[in-house]
DNA sequence: CACATCAGCTTGTACCAACAAGTTGAGCAG
DNA sequence: CTGCTCAACTTGTTGGTACAAGCTGATGTG
């Protein structure tokens, strides 16, 4: 056991208190000056310890109020059912899922023409900088920012599906709209990654320190070629994804919660 | 545009330099004292700015060496093919995947009996605290810690598949071994989440500040009930997962990269 | 009672100083 | 030339001070 720096010890003790339940989720921690007395340390040292816990996502602080233990209520997203290839539901999946969970959904839309980034171009199989239709969506649950979603469609699709450039939501859902036009999405390729948010993402999703984002990229394919690429950015502390693959009849009989 | 704190400005300028390529991945940043002169700020202020960038995962620092720009080389894991239900490959999937990528895999095994946590118990449909077989695996790529994997099997399985309690690897792969005994995994339920690492995880995976972990839980099912639960913890900066769902014949013809 | 003010708490920012500890390369002893 | 020592760099830790800024409840005024 090598000697650890004092601010590290402060963090360790407080972490044990937090995970042990001494300070339950939502509770307020002692103030910095109280912790100075408790640990016989300078304010800087106590703050370093608290900052460590904040960067682990355990606590958050606000000026004038103090430090409090983060509470996590995760929202589960079933990615393999999200837009079922065989049974597309009516309307958009987000609103129905959230409403079913007894929460209040809210979303804002924005549509624009944007050049394809390298990331998008590679997936849509178009050239970098080519025009694409960008449908951007900012989603809230009970007025808390939840995720952003940016779907880009290749330019050649617009002639077949002109309503894609319409501002605002497409009532019956874009997938269903396109299916009605004979543009059928018969498969998709999902990529999942995580990282810390960029300053822009942190602002949009109101993310504090110590909360990563979950990145979900879904590229949809027709028989011939990719027809859309959706990048969803989730707040990592509020979301979880799942996939159901194969026969899960043994699972569904007594669904936990 | 409200006035931003000075350490924030420091971070903004350096961030622009980093993402803009002034300091390419792997490059060393100017020392703290040089940055003090450049920004006309105290050492603490400069350090606060650098710490902000570190917590975003952009840079890392080491005592005596300085700050350097993080380089990301991600390893892609195909979760839907990882242990294909219809075509199980020989040996374990990790080693073959890594070797195919031209890298050198390495892994250590540990087997023990452990009580089921609430998380595990719920998924294996056993009581909390029930004995389970824990097969733990620590994986490296080119000697860099990559992921940890903990698979737990319910106790009732051991009578049917006694080799599960053997220490060390099971050469032909546990899935194939169990299939040979008539215990067939016909479906699985995947859950994906992200968060900052616990101190233990940070130590095992040698994770610095600003790097989240990607958590992948796979619960495997036979016709009747769950037969295993695997929790994999990835370094978020080095790994990405993907799922192929439906017909993707349009994708595979000219695979990018 | 309604409402504005303010004292007293909280955290946030910015500075200074000093020493510890890790790394590297110059330079000296053998 | 080899190998060791050490000075001079780097970041890490800990202490201090001062003031800014956000929040809350008590207080006093209309």
Give the oligomer, counting copies of the same chain as homo and different chains as hetero.
homodimer
Sheet with the most strands, sense and barrel status of chain A: 6 strands, antiparallel
The greatest interface between two protein chains, and residues involved on each side, is: A-B, 56 and 56 residues
Low-confidence stretches of chain A: none
Percentage of residues in helical conformation of chain A: 25-40%
Question: What CATH architecture of the largest domain in chain A would you give?
Answer: 3-Layer(aba) Sandwich
Number of domains of chain A: 2
CATH topology title of the largest domain in chain A: Chorismate lyase
CATH superfamily of the largest domain in chain A: Chorismate lyase-like
Overall, the morphology of chain A is elongated
Q: Average pLDDT across residues of chain A?
A: 89
CATH class of the largest domain in chain A: Alpha Beta
Order of helices and strands of chain A: HHHEEEHEHEEHHEHEEEH
Number of helices of chain A: 9
Which structural class is indicated by helix and strand composition of chain A?
alpha+beta
The overall strand count of chain A is 10
| Terminal CA distance of chain A | 43 Å
Radius of gyration of chain A: 23 Å
Give the percentage of residues in beta strands of chain A: 25-35%
> Strand order of the main beta sheet of chain A, please?
4-5-6-9-8-7
């Amino acid at each position: 056991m090598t000697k650890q720096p004092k601010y590290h010890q402060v963090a360790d003790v407080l972490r044990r208190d937090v995970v042990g339940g001494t300070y339950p989720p939502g509770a307020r921690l002692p103030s910095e000056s109280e912790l100075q007395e408790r640990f016989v340390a300078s304010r800087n040292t106590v703050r370093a310890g608290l900052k460590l816990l904040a960067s682990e996502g355990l606590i958050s602080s606000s000026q004038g109020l103090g430090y409090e233990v983060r509470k996590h209520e995760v929202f589960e997203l079933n990615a393999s059912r999200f837009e079922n290839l065989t049974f597309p539901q009516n309307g958009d999946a987000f609103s129905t899922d959230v409403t079913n969970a007894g929460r209040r959904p809210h979303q804002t839309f924005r549509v624009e023409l944007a050049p394809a980034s390298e990331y998008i171009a590679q997936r849509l199989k178009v050239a970098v900088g080519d025009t694409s239709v960008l449908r951007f969506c900012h989603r809230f649950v009970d007025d808390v920012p939840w995720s952003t979603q940016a779907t880009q469609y290749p330019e050649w699709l617009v002639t077949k599906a002109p309503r894609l450039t319409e501002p605002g939501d497409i009532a019956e859902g874009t997938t269903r709209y396109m299916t009605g036009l004979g543009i059928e999405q018969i498969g998709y390729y999902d990529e999942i990654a995580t990282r810390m948010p960029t300053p822009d993402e942190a602002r949009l999703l109101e993310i504090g320190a110590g909360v990563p984002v979950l990145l979900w990229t879904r590229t949809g394919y027709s028989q011939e070629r990719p027809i859309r690429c959706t990048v969803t950015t989730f707040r990592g502390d509020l979301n979880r994804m799942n996939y159901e693959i194969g026969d899960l009849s043994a699972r569904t009989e007594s669904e936990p919660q």
